[in-house]
Amino acid sequence: MIDRLIEGIKKTGAPIVVGLDPTLKLIPEQITKKYFEEMGETPEAVAEAITEYNRGLIDAVYELVPAVKPQIAMYEAFGIPGLVAFQKTVDYAHEKGLLVIGDIKRGDIGSTSEAYARAHLGKIKVGSKEFPGFSEDFATVNPYLGTDGVKPFTDVCREEGKGIFVLVKTSNPSSGEFQDREIDGTPLSKLVAEKVVEWGSELIGKNGYSAVGAVVGATYPEQGRLLRSVMPKSFILVPGYGAQGGKGKDLAYFFNKDGLGAIVNSSRGIIGAYQQEKYAEYGAEGYADAARAAVLDMKEDIAQALA
After folding, report:
1. How many C-beta atoms lie closer than 10 Å to residue 202's C-beta?
2. Mean predicted confidence (pLDDT) in 3-11
3. What band does 306 get if pLDDT is binned at 50, 70 and 90?
4. pLDDT higher than threshold 70 for residue 243
5. Would the CA dihedral through 129, 134, 138, 140 be positive or negative?
6. Which of 15, 106, 127, 204 has the highest CB neighbour number within 10 Å of its CB?
7. Which of 112, 3, 27 is CA-nearest to residue 288?
8. Judging by beta carbons within 10 Å of its beta carbon (0-12, 13-18, 19+), is residue 11 exposed, middle or buried?
9. How confident is the model at residue 246 (pLDDT cuts 50, 70, 90)?
10. 103 in the Ramachandran plot: left (φ > 0), alpha (ψ -120 to 50) or beta?
11. What secondary structure does DSSP assign to 130-153, as a single string?
């Protein structure tokens, strides 16, 4: 799957993933109003609104980017109807030829971690038959429980040809409370990066990159430079661009000299672009066109940073 991601990046010229993190504040009123009038102010109505909103966004960007990244919490918040909307979003993205990074941040031990891995990347056996779960192509994984929590994911990646992104240095302000702590003189994030290399050493694709990647926030470019050197064969998923403060000029350190090695996420900055002054001319009715314009601007910003 990492090779498919690289092919998608080369085809589009955009090392960009669009985060599909819907909230009621971001969904245009004309969409929520329609379903509230039809179904009442219910989780089921919100789920239908999310599905329509996401489909509009996907239709606007699927030719411009290789992947989307739905954050499952935004769907789980609405219970079972929300999870149905999550599945519909994954399926529609696949119909449009996009790869899907399931932003699930799971991490546990033993059979629990295996269940998470099979739910999102693999299949579950029922008698003599096998059924896919949510069927994302990649998933984000929390490494806090160590190899016990990660190995079930790498096992499923090996079986299914899928991939994962391990949390190494996250973009949030308080990440340093743990991730910057030094153990025998080495930052914890660097130790995790070294384990990422180990976990992915037997899952190298034809392009030379591992199916085990890392999450490193754009808000920490200097640490991005260090971690890039530690993980030369690992793709880096870079959150924190746009709404969280990361800029194109901060991104060069996350890429290798071949121009590959990273994919940059933007969520609110794209899916809520119509609410920004820069794209206000599109209005709520043109939310998808505003998102498309934001992707094109982001693509140019990254290209200038890497030039």
Report:
1. 11
2. 97
3. confident
4. no
5. negative
6. 15
7. 27
8. exposed
9. low
10. beta
11. EEE-S--SEEEE--TTTHHHHHHH
- Domain borders along the chain are 2-306
**Which ranges constitute the DSSP H helices of 73-124?**
73-76, 79-95, 110-120
Query: What percent of the chain has a predicted confidence (pLDDT) above 90?
Result: 89
Give the model's pLDDT for residue 153.
97
Catalytic residue (choose from 96, 105, 123, 247): 105
What is residue 204's three-state secondary structure? strand
Pairing of strands 262-266, 210-216: unpaired
105 is catalytic: yes
Average pLDDT over residues 60-87: 98
Superfamily of domain 2-306: Aldolase class I (3.20.20.70)
Residue among 241, 195, 196 at smallest CA distance from 217: 241
Which stretches does DSSP call E strand in the chain? 16-20, 67-70, 99-106, 123-126, 129-132, 138-141, 163-169, 182-183, 186-187, 210-216, 234-238, 262-266
Q: Which pTM does this prediction carry?
A: 0.95
Position 14 scores a pLDDT of: 96
Predicted pLDDT of residue 305: 86
Q: Which residues contact 146 (CB under 8 A, 6 or more apart)?
A: none
Question: d(Cα 142, Cα 149) in Å, to the nearest integer?
Answer: 8
List C-alpha distances in Å: 9 to 57, 131, 177, 271, 289.
Answer: 19, 30, 34, 20, 21
Strand pairing category for 129-132 and 123-126? antiparallel
Backbone angles phi, psi at 102, to 5 degrees: -75, 110
**Nearest Cα to 196, choosing from 152, 238, 151?**
151
The pair of structure tokens assigned to 9 is: 């990046």
Q: How many of the other CB atoms lie within 10 Å of CB of 128? A: 5
